[in-house]
Amino acid sequence: MNNQLSVLGYQAGNSFIYQLNATAKLLFFLLISISSMVTYDTRYLAFVALFSVVLFYFSKIPFSSVKRVAQFAAIFAILNLLFVFIFDPGYGARLYDSKTILWGPLTLEELFYLFNLVLKYFSTIPLALLFILTTNPSQFASSLNKIGLPYRSSYSVSLALRYIPDMQERFLAIRNAGQARGMDLSKKVGLFSRIKLNVQLLLPLIFSSLEQIDTISTAMELRRFGKKKKRSWYSYQPLNVKDYLVILLALLGVAIVVLLFFVNQGRFFNPFH
């Protein structure tokens, strides 16, 4: 696999999502994600999950760019569902005030509750990946500054977004160099051995990165960064009609969740009554 494809960070593209303002995308991601985490209405979660997957498809981002992240998220989700069931297999029955036994301790109500948890993953993870992969760090920082966040904090966010893919690229380069020298990091080696070897490669990278951060901070101080109360942005992108529609759509999602709270008389949609 091409190492470049394994790096998770901003990737230039020409789909309609790239044309949206970074602030609009951030507000949409936060509002929809929070509303999806708050509610357990299966109808809303299913719609948001389907919408998120379709949106990711039309963004034209190759799946190879997020394959590793998707695999990690799938493993984490499976473990989470497994532990939820093991520690309290009767939670769904108590929650929905109904009990339909399917097999052993597994009930239809517990299965329905676990299905809602799966929908929550599909509702938030694709949106998070879309935001990371389609948002230019400089435009994002300028947008944050324009809505009131201090430009020092905005610039810190921009540096973080730029530095994450650089860290990944350097780690991949170090790992490939180690494999060229005979270090076996393939699947033939046990899981714990691979983790130990990767940690041995990662620690020097972290210390060298801290030194680099200190160098960058010193260079910015020498150029009197942060001395003024305001600054201009070369890459600022103003909000347009499409951006306001995206924000309005996110607010509509929040309003629907609030409405469903009264309709369901709580956070949970109960199809068993």
Report on the architecture of this protein.
The chain is mostly helical. It folds into 2 domains: 1-136 and 240-273, no CATH class; 139-234, no CATH class. Helix content is 67%, strand content 2%. The chain is built from 9 helices and 2 strands; from the N terminus they run ααααββααααα. Residues 1-6 have low confidence and may be disordered.
Task: Sum up the structure in keywords.
mainly alpha; 9 helices; 273 residues; two-stranded antiparallel sheet; 2% strand; 2 domains
Compact overview of the structure:
With 273 residues, this protein is mainly α.
Alpha-beta content class: mainly alpha
Tell me how many strands there are. Answer: 2
Overall number of structural domains: 2
The outline comes out as globular
Number of helices: 9
Average pLDDT level:
79
Termini gap:
51 Å
Q: Which percent range describes the beta-strand content?
A: under 5%
Cα radius of gyration in angstroms: 23 Å
The low-pLDDT segments are: 1-6
Order of H and E elements: HHHHEEHHHHH
How helical, in percent, are the residues? 55-70%
Query: How would you sum up the major sheet?
Result: 2 strands, antiparallel
Reading side by side through the largest sheet, how are the strands ordered? Answer: 1-2
How would you summarize the topology of this molecule?
Blueprint (H helix, E strand, L loop, with lengths): L21 H17 L3 H17 L8 H21 L3 H6 L4 E3 L2 E2 H27 L2 H10 L4 H30 L10 H32 L18 H23 L10
Antiparallel strand pairs: 1-2
Helix pairs in contact: 1-5, 1-9, 2-5, 3-5, 6-7, 7-8
